[in-house]
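re: that complex we talked abt at group meeting.

here r the seqs, copy pasted straight from the sheet so there may be weird spacing, ignore it
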Amino acid sequence: MFELYALGVLEPAEKTEIEAHLARGCESCSHALASALALNAGVFSFAPPVKPRGRLRRRLLTSVGVHYPGWGWVWAAGAVCLLLVAAWLGVEERRRSFELADARRALLDSNGERDRLTQALQFLSDPQTRPASFGRGQTAPPRGYVFLHPQMGVLLIASNLPAAGPGRTYEMWVIPKGGAPQPAGLFQSDGMRALHILSGPVDVSAIGTVAVTIEPAAGSSRPTMPIIIAAPIGS
Amino acid sequence: MLLLKLLPAGLAFAILQVALRLADDADLVRRLKAREPHAMNDLYDRYGRLAYSLICRIVRNPSTAEDLVQETFLRVWNRVQSFDAERGALGAWVLTVARNRAIDHLRSVDGRMEAGAIDLDHLERPGLFAKLDSAALAMDRVRRLKSAFEKLTPTQRQVIELAYYEGMSQTEMAERLKQPLGTVKTWTRSALKILRDELAEAAIA
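got the structure back, here u go
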């Protein structure tokens, strides 16, 4: 029963008896106790193996004043890498959002251009459209055509039309016979060509001239600059 | 060397391993006594997992087990000066301290055997382990002991587990199992005899 004694689970009477023997220096009892301790240690090692967490070693060594670096530096390096990756992802995201916005703008522009061309084609193909030309016989550009349609409005197609310049825009005017010029929209030239449409019904027979001037970027209510294009509309 | 040539390779390796481990344990105890900074790390490397597994088996709570492992190793660190580096079985001592810390915890939680803590403290003095066979935890021995344990009857195994892993006296076991005290004593005695005989045979072999 030395095993139970060594485990501290022996009944009080038996325990007292063993302790009395050991106190007398009984050799066989000492030997039996040593064997019991060895057996007990063997049984203790039967426990199913469980892996302790890494922090236990750190806690233990810290408690006896030993600095244990452990894997802390790996976590620190990992954190730095994560920060770098996060920063890079942020920059990439920003760049992509700019690219996406540019692409959207380009798509809108091209959609607008397509709509304008479709509208111009409708103008040109409709039998009610009445053409007028300008710039013929002039040595300097621009030249082109004006098309009038009672329901669709006025279409201006110009070539050899230079860019209006910084802070400037082209403005089209519809000038009624014997009347004051009416603003008919702003447009820009790509440096060579320009296409502009004034949408909506117009009284074709009342229009005397379609003209274009260069105006400040916001446009004007009355022409302020010299006339660049003047297309007289025949009756 | 001649002996090693005559032995099967596996057995020779096991003997060599035990010899190296024992030499290492004596050296480790010397380093612990000298308070070398990395000695505690090596002690933990060698017995930390065993102690943690044993304590987990007893208290069944990883967080409590961590506290008790820390307490175990601090106790060993503080008492190692009285440990006999040449003759003592370091592993057996560490596991005994670990088991006693866990049983003390169980007893304090259950509120049973107030004087138990003093008893267990008394039973883990480094001096007790000086006469121990230092190969107490040799792999081959433990394997044989475990094989004998697995051959015990279910009731024999149960009383051993209650004594070793729950710190129960035979009277407490009799109450728990609702069996006469005499029956429990018979089961315990016969189980321990089987294990003891196996260990004695292993020592002769």
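couple things i noticed - The first helix of chain A runs from residue 2 to 7. The longest strand of chain A covers residues 207-216.
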